Amino acid sequence: MEFEKMIELIKTVSDSNLTQFQIEEDGFKLSMKTDKQSKVVVQKQESVPKEIQSVAMDEIKPAEQKEIKKAEGNVVKSPLVGTFYSASSPDSAPFVKVGDTVKKGQVLGIVEAMKLMNEIESEFDGVVKEIQIENEQVVEYGQPLFVIG
């Protein structure tokens, strides 16, 4: 990338409200982030063949992330990202177990997000067929938690 184009790009990003910008061209990688203290980082990137990049990325998987099962039936999903708790305290019994009969509105678990405890209520009447999450596991938005039959 030509030096004049880099300077023009840096000025444009500096004048904008962007929080992050990144471009790669001809072995150079330019990363910029604007906030109260602007930082510009320019680094030369070594070329790695595309085949090696794709194999390497396929091998990288989060250590504790479990495969999310395809749930069938009445599924209660997480309404937010956070940490799941099956009981109100470490010493308490879980809210529900597989085989328990539940009513619509009954608390099934808690998802903690930003220090707030959010009760997860059953959206269905029925029997708990599956619990697809473990205590203290991080959950994603829309992730299946319970299957009610």
UniProtKB/TrEMBL annotation:
Keyword Lipid metabolism: yes
Database matches in NCBIfam families: BCCP
Family annotation (SUPFAM superfamilies): Single hybrid motif
Annotated keywords: Biotin, Fatty acid biosynthesis, Fatty acid metabolism, Lipid biosynthesis, Lipid metabolism
Function, as annotated: This protein is a component of the acetyl coenzyme A carboxylase complex; first, biotin carboxylase catalyzes the carboxylation of the carrier protein and then the transcarboxylase transfers the carboxyl group to form malonyl-CoA.
Gene3D superfamilies given in the database record: 2.40.50.100
Coiled coil: none
Protein's pathway: Lipid metabolism; fatty acid biosynthesis
Domain spans labelled Lipoyl-binding: 73-149
Protein name: Biotin carboxyl carrier protein of acetyl-CoA carboxylase
UniProt organism field: Blautia stercoris
InterPro entries documented for this protein: AcCoA_biotinCC, Biotin_BS, Biotin_Carboxyl_Carrier/Decarb, Biotin_lipoyl, Single_hybrid_motif
Pfam assignment, any one: Biotin_lipoyl
